[in-house]
Amino acid sequence: MARNPERRTALLDAAIEVLADEGARGLTFRAVDARAGVPTGTSSNYFTDRDQMLSQVADRIFVRLTPAPGALDTALLPAPSRELVVELMRWLARRMAAERSCYLGLFELRLEAARRPELQNRFTEVLRTDLDLNIRLHLDSGMPGDADTVRLLYFALTGLLFDHFTVPGLHGERDLDELIETVVTRIVPAS
């Protein structure tokens, strides 16, 4: 296996773009090589098989979607309130929109995980850890609501972003910020 970490990262980023544009079925070594602009056969020097590439792509997506160090601490500085939850959800949605390919790739990988138990196990572990962290942050920061409030926000934002990225005209003239405010107002109890 080749050991150039920068090249591996470039190949994984190219694989994310392929996933976002062509779906999981379009994710081949040849497609990744073409997207990365490297000679045919390069990605097969970095990944033993497609399953290993899928797993490493998932890891790379989670790295790219993780906020910069300190960003979350800064976002949590204002006093806990329903209004702050609205702003945090909008901040999260903007971050996902900035990494649109990652988010679409994540949807594709989640569908692929339904057919691949090892990928499903990995996703379950990572997403459960992330959800548990979000619940702990919400509760520890004194935000209004409980653990189920965070779960409902997670379900709502996941669905909103899925619609936003796949069928943006579904909600007519209502923009994402407005929809987020409606969701938070309905789910999060007043302070």
Automatic annotation (TrEMBL):
Residues in the DNA-binding region annotation: 28-47
Keyword Amino-acid biosynthesis carried by entry: no
Pfam families associated with the record: TetR_C_31, TetR_N
Start and end residues of each HTH tetR-type domain: 5-65
Chain ranges passing through the membrane: none
Alphabetical keyword list: DNA-binding
Protein's UniProt name: TetR/AcrR family transcriptional regulator
Protein source organism: Streptomyces gulbargensis
